Amino acid sequence: MLRLLLFTLAQQEPGELGDGLTAIGQGIVYGAAAIGPGIGIGIVVGNAITAMARQPESAGVVRTTMFLGIAFTEALALFGFVLSFIL
Amino acid sequence: MTIPVLGLEVPPIDHLINWPSFLFDDTPFAINKVVLIYFFATIVTILFFFMASRRAARVPRGMQNLAEASIDFIREGVILQTIGPDGMRFLPFLLAMFFFIFFSNITEVIPFIQFPANARMAVPMFLALLVWFIYNIVGIAKQGPLHYLKNSLIPPGVPWPLLFLVVPIEFVSTFLVRPFSLAVRLFANMLAGHLILVTFAVICAALFSKTLLVVILPFSFGLLVGLTGFEVLVAVLQAFIFTILAAVYIGGSMHPEH
After folding, report:
1. Within 13 A of B214's CA, how many CA atoms are on the CB side?
2. How many CB atoms lie within 10 A of CB A44?
3. Which pTM was predicted?
4. B141 has pLDDT over 90
5. For site-directed labelling of B106, which of A2, B61, B96, B120 has its Cα 20 to 30 A away?
6. How far is B228 from chain A (nearest CA, A)?
C-alpha cells in the first residue's frame, strides 16, 4: 500500500503534489470551520424551540432573535468557507 | 485512476462566477451579467413600489396590498423590535435595501438567469460599508464622538484591569469585523447556494446516460428540485438577516447600553 503510494507520488509532476495537498487543506479548513458553528446553531435553535414551546405567544420575538443568533454563529463557518477558496 | 463513469467534470470556480463583459470593455463601466442583474434588481425594486403607489386607494388591492404588507413587515418585524419607535426614519433605507438584496438573490433560481448577483463580493461589501458609515454617523450625531467611542469600546460593568484586554477586542469586533462579517455572510451564503445547485445539476447531467446509473437520476434530480426550493428560502432569509443586522447596528449606536 505504502509502496504503491510512494510509487504514485514519484510519478507525479512536482506541481501536482502541491495542488493535491492544497485541495486536502481546503477540505480540512472548511470541515474544521463547520464543527463549532454546527454545534452552536444546534444550541441556538434548540433553545429557541424550547422557548417557543413554553410560551407560544412570544414565538414572534423568539424567532427574530433566533435568526440573529444563527446569523452571528454562522459567520465563523462562512469565514472558513471563503478561506477554503482563498487557499 | 478515475473510473470513467464516476469521473465527474465539475467546472472550476472561476468558470462559474467570472462572467466576461460584453459592453464598454476595458473601462470602469464594463457591463457583464452580474451588472445586468443588479440593474434588473434596481429597476424591479423601483417599479414595485412605483406601481403600488400609482393608484393608491384607501382599500388596498393587488400590488398595493403586497407593498403595504412588506412595509408593515419591515416596520413591525425589524425596526420596532430592534431600534424602537424613533428608528422610523430608517424605514425607507431598510425597505429598499431588503428588496434590492432580495431581487438580486432570487435570480439564483430564475430560469435562464440562474446566478445570484450577490455571489460576487463587490456589492455586498459596498452595502456593508454603507451600513458601517450610517451607524457610525448616527452614533456620533446622537451621542457625540467621545461618548460614542466610550460607549462602543467599554462595555458597562467591566473591572478596570480587564479593560486592557476588552477595549482592543471591542474595537476590532465593532469597527473592523462587523462590516466584514456582514458582507461575507451574504456573499458566502449565495456563493455556497450557487455551488450546490451547480454540483447537483452537473451530477444530473452526468447521470443522464444510457448506463445502469440512470436509476439514481430521479433521486439526484429530486434533490436538485428540493434544493432549488431551499435556495428561495435562503434568498429571502439572507435579505432579512442583512436588513435586521443593519437595524441592530443602527439601534446599538442610537441607544447605548447603560
Report:
1. 5
2. 21
3. 0.87
4. yes
5. B61
6. 20
